[in-house]
Amino acid sequence: MSEVTSESASTTETAEAPVRTVPAAPPARHTGRLAGPLNALAPHAKIGMVVGGVLSIVGAYLAWSTFVLNEGAYPERATLTMFVEPFGVTGFRLHITLLGLATIVVALLRVPAKHRIVRGLGVGVTAVAVLNGLWITVEGGGLGAITASDGTVAFGSIVALVGGLVTVLSATAGGLEDKPVWEWKLAWWVEWILLLVVFVLILLLVAEVLTSGGQGGVVNPYAGVVFLSLLAALAGAFAALNASGLLTWVGEVSERHRVFSVVVLLLCALALPFTGAGTEYWMTVASNIGVYAATAIGLNIVVGLAGLLDLGYVAFLGIGAFVAANLSGAAASVIGIHVPFLLVMVISAVVAGIFGAIVGSPTLRVRGDYLAIVTLAFGEIFVRSAQNNIAGLTGGANAIPNIPQVALGSFQFNQSISLGPIQLPGGVMYYVAIVLLVAAVMLVFGNLKNSRLGRAWIAIREDEDAAAAMGIRTGPIKILAFLIGAMLAGFAGAFFAHKTAVVAYDSFRFLESVTLLAAVILGGMGTIPGAVLGASILFVLPEKLREFADYRLLLFGLALVLIMRFRPQGIIADKHRKAELAEDPEDAAKEAPGALPTEVK
Amino acid sequence: MSIFLSQIANGLMFGSLIALIAIGYTMVYGIITLINFAHGEIFMVGAYGGLATLTYWVPTAVVARWYFALPIALVAGALVSMLVAVAMERFAYRPLRNAPRLAPLITALGVSVALQEAVRVFYPGATAAIPFPPLFIQGAFVIPIGDGVVIRYTGILLIVVSLGLAFGLERFVERTRLGRAMRATSQDRDTARLMGIDPDRVIVLTFAIGGALAGVAGVLYGSYLNNINIDMGFQNGIFAFTAAVLGGIGNIRGAVVGGLVIGLVRALGGQYLPGGTAYDYVWIFVVLIIVLVFRPQGFFGESERVRA
Amino acid sequence: MSRTRKVATTAALLAGVLALSACSTNREEASSGGGGSCDTSKGTLVVGFVAPLSGSLSALGLGMKNSTDLAVNQANQACKVPGYRLALQAEDDQATAQIAGQAATKLASDPNVVGVIGTLNSSTAQTVAPILAQKKIVEISPANTNPALTQGDNYATAPARPNATYFRTATTDAIQGPFAAQFLVQKQGKKNIAVIDDGKTYGAGLADQFAAEAQKLGATIAARLKVGEKDTDFSGVITQIRGANPDAVYYGGEYPVAGPLSKQLADAGLNIPLMGGDGIVDSTYAQLGGREGDFATNVGAPPEQQPSAKAFIDAYAAAGYSEPYSAYGALTYDAANVLIDGLSKTVGNGTFSDASRDGLISAVQATNLQGATGAISFDQFGDTTNKVLTVYTVQGGKFTPLETGTYAAS
């Protein structure tokens, strides 16, 4: 057991076990173990874990709320008491049962990294119990709702919470092992089948997450919390899987069969309409995610690869959209011609690219923070000009409405399709188109990143002067970053115009640029799937949590601060950047004026 | 002629307000080279802080007399802004002191959004514009040139307070021990530390002074225009940053001159350039881009300090 | 304090809190809530709502949401739709078209949604209306003013209704602007008018229509200027106006800008009245700087003379919402009532299903209702036929009605 493990164990323990009272004793004596009362638990860790698991399950089977909440039963069969119906638990209580069962099984078996896995499961139980207990308390008007009131008792949440905490504490006390590394190699076809199964499971999981809790709204007031609870349970399960080292292994397998993985992933993405998430609503949301993901990938080239911060990036999406709107044959456009959609996409991309090069041209003289401000100024100029209907091209405050749907012959993209007995929802063609578009954009990005040009961008990001000294023509290459990034946004803009059917200046304000930037950062700067993941999270969360719309931006702002503080490399960290973003105490010394230009990262 | 002079006066009044905010930007950037995007929101918070004090804690009889109400509101606004600025430094920026440059900048954007929304959600009635009581002699005097050049008393207050504070601050930075510590820290933090200066204290002081000035600006803004809204911080903050860059970042005198130039560009651009007032902001940004491209060190910046 | 004592204190505190709140619940023994004494056995029908509920336009959006909520609650209490409970489902559109599209699609895929109230912005309506029309869901907007929404892209030359499901209780700019011009030019004798707007759909449209009619009536447009929708310093604009020596200012936009603009006009020595549309009629207008003698037009007859309007204002106050009903409150309340009224006629004692949607559309089309803003009915395009407008003037810090009239083209 290494020093590092013991350190991480003790920090987690402080964060998750408020019960602890005595500070950790010197680590030398307790390597890998926790000090204080918990230390006494260590010999009984196995029993503790089993007890925790059992308590979790018992909690799941107890009643959770003393009465049926005024807004309707939450959870379903809220007052269902223990073992009235052995298989009657559903929803989050089922999740807790499963996590608890897994806890017991893993605790009793000889599994590598047993304690780490169990801790993940315990954290899941704890989070689900806290979340739902709090919710019932708040909705039920006080703690009476989850304890005892008017002769009924409902201690489900408290028992489950205790179970979760006991699990976490015993697992931690048992000593956390290092994550095991698996080096199994199977026959290629076995690995293929395995990957196929994994990706299909991911697809089903995504569909489940999207549809969890139903669509929300007044008829279904608990959609938000059901969704959050599912996320918490999944987080626990994933922590456990990750601790077992299996996730890393699957990642390595898919890396071995790269092309196969990419193809299967693409097919899975295209299969989403066949799952429970195949509603017109989710197709619309997914199409918007696609638009923003494609734009974010463009931004990723500029910020993530070339290290040029752009704060007005959404303007390129806007330019693409306005170009497409003007060429769509919409009545409000000045240029009353209708150009085929594919051609429109190309034209939009080219025009946006030209503007990208113009906006990027100050990079020849301006660097770093100042460049960020120049791009912000361009963004503001764009919004202001669009609002004032510059040259009659943007429709000003009236926008450009009634942009016709994309059509293949007489088939319009917003219609629904019947494939034999299966009825696919309206908008599914837009979804298919945007998935293909994003896939193409990702392909472009992936190839660029590993090309000569991509390496030149990264070199510029690392140290522009050194790059120039190595013979890289930094000027044109930086402008090229802006040009290509803007072209991707322009593509997406053309799509956006037709899908949304109206292009208005207020879709392209500063906040949208910040959102795009947040998507790139959240997902992981410089990585290919990062931007897509970031855009998905930033769209799905507000959709699933619409009842908290009032706090959307507040939470968004705080989230930005917290991400920068605790995980600046984003969810999917770029291998190369991981090193850069680690805190470097010497950085402070480099802040002498002369060194500054190179520090923009 | 009178139109031209009036626009000059308008520009100077708006410009001196921007200058007051710009000083905070320029000081923070000078010391820790951070574009503190949230500084505009500090200005906004100051206005709401001053208003809250007048609305909830001061008897109306006192509010009605401007010579009582004005100092109270100014001090309250400055205090609220100062507290928020210091807290922001402590909890958002200090942990990132040695992080790559992008991290604090994005944090600043996050703080900016969060502060604006916090006020919107938690200040009663802040979803819309809120009336701000007049805190100075109302009305205007007219200089009899042509149709007359109208100058409002509150505008004069704005100019006097802004220039006065800027002058005082510059003396402070030039003459006092603390001021010298600030200059030393901005030039080389590590050497300053070796000389016995605590850079953390200096940085906190910088945020506190910048915040206080922004709070004063917020209250003056409310009193000058009689209403405040949650969006006032972002837009004026951008202008103030532009002013700081124009003047040469890190330079207090530059920030003041930059602010006045911004005011004049907006007033005269709206009057004489094509597109009129609909495009007056655009001209500010055009000037910003031109200056950054052709003279990135600004009017007063020393060329070796160019960090762009 | 030692660590142990700290823990002990915390525990004691927690125990205290637990003891205090131990048995508290908000248990109601009512049926499924909200229905009061009505029969709600047939389930819940949803009134959708789309407007900005977050961000800087939320003041208007929240006022609209509360007004809809009020109408829905009243309908539930009065058992307007027998057998059903009505519920409001408010969705945030963040004032952008793509999010509005998502919200509309979400509502459209819920079979319980009978109709949608909203949106606020015309640009969001452009994307919402077709989505709802596809599913035959009625949309009634209290705030959209763009004529293309009801009369098609060629509204000036060949009006044609694009969506049979789209209605609005808001008057288009084409009525309010000219009405104001007739008042200001003919009744007040103003001949040299400066026209300012905020560059938004509502304001710019209103100002354009006003300017056109005023010129037709023989007045000069002394200046035609724009201010930013978020601006508060108008000295530049006022200096420009001042040179033209106008005898009145017409402002197309909303009260947060109009109030300070009026005050700054006076400060600059221009003691001329400012006039605006319904967007500036707000209780805080005078506090924000609006002066005695400023004018505004508003839709419908004054509430004081109209019990229905008075009833709305009182009910809104009694309901205790935390936000004021704002500029579009009364129109939203009317829109919601039109929908509920149509619903109660369509459903009668039967049940609501997808097959009822056509009936609901015709019922709304045939609306004849006395609302908070006056008599409501719709023309063949879905526009309100309510052309009664009232001119208000600021007296004693409040908008007081000056005269009421019906708009007639000059």
UniProtKB/TrEMBL annotation, chain A:
Going by the entry's taxonomy, the superkingdom of the source organism is recorded as Bacteria
Q: How does it sit in the membrane?
A: Multi-pass membrane protein
Region annotated Disordered, chain positions: 1-28, 579-601
Q: Which residues cross the membrane?
A: 47-67, 87-109, 121-138, 153-176, 188-210, 222-247, 259-277, 289-309, 316-335, 341-358, 370-387, 428-448, 479-497, 517-541, 548-566
Its predominant location is membrane
The cellular location(s) given in this protein's UniProt record come to: Cell membrane
The terms describing its cellular component in GO are: plasma membrane
Annotated protein name in UniProt: Amino acid/amide ABC transporter membrane protein 2, HAAT family
UniProtKB/TrEMBL annotation, chain B:
Q: Which GO terms label this protein's molecular function in UniProt? A: L-isoleucine transmembrane transporter activity; L-leucine transmembrane transporter activity; L-phenylalanine transmembrane transporter activity; L-valine transmembrane transporter activity
Q: Where in the cell is it found?
A: Cell membrane
Sequence intervals crossing the membrane: 12-35, 42-60, 66-87, 121-143, 150-169, 202-225, 237-261, 281-300
Keyword line: Amino-acid transport, Cell inner membrane, Cell membrane, Membrane, Transmembrane, Transmembrane helix, Transport
Q: One GO CC annotation, please?
A: plasma membrane
Where does this protein chiefly localize? membrane
What topology in the membrane does the UniProt record assign? Multi-pass membrane protein
Q: From which domain of life does this come?
A: Bacteria
Q: Tell me, which GO biological process terms does this entry list?
A: D-alanine transmembrane transport; L-alanine transport; L-isoleucine import across plasma membrane
Question: Which Pfam family is one of this chain's hits?
Answer: BPD_transp_2
Q: Which family does it belong to?
A: Belongs to the binding-protein-dependent transport system permease family. LivHM subfamily.
Name of the protein this chain belongs to: Amino acid/amide ABC transporter membrane protein 1, HAAT family
Q: What is the originating organism of this protein?
A: Pseudonocardia oroxyli
**Native organism taxonomy:** Bacteria, Bacillati, Actinomycetota, Actinomycetes, Pseudonocardiales
TrEMBL record, chain C:
The superkingdom listed in its UniProt entry is: Bacteria
Coiled-coil annotation reads none
Keywords on this record? Answer: Signal
Spell out the InterPro entries in the cross-references: Leu-bd, Peripla_BP_I
User: In the record, which residues are listed under signal peptide?
Assistant: 1-22
One Pfam family named in its UniProt record: Peripla_BP_6
Q: Does the keyword Nucleotide-binding apply?
A: no
Q: Where is the Leucine-binding protein domain?
A: 46-397
The family line of this record is: Belongs to the leucine-binding protein family.
PANTHER family reported in the protein's UniProt record = AMINO ACID BINDING PROTEIN (PTHR47151:SF2), LEU/ILE/VAL-BINDING ABC TRANSPORTER SUBUNIT (PTHR47151)
Q: What is this protein called?
A: Branched-chain amino acid transport system substrate-binding protein
User: What is the native source organism of this protein?
Assistant: Pseudonocardia oroxyli
For this protein's source organism, the top of the classification is: Bacteria, Bacillati, Actinomycetota, Actinomycetes, Pseudonocardiales
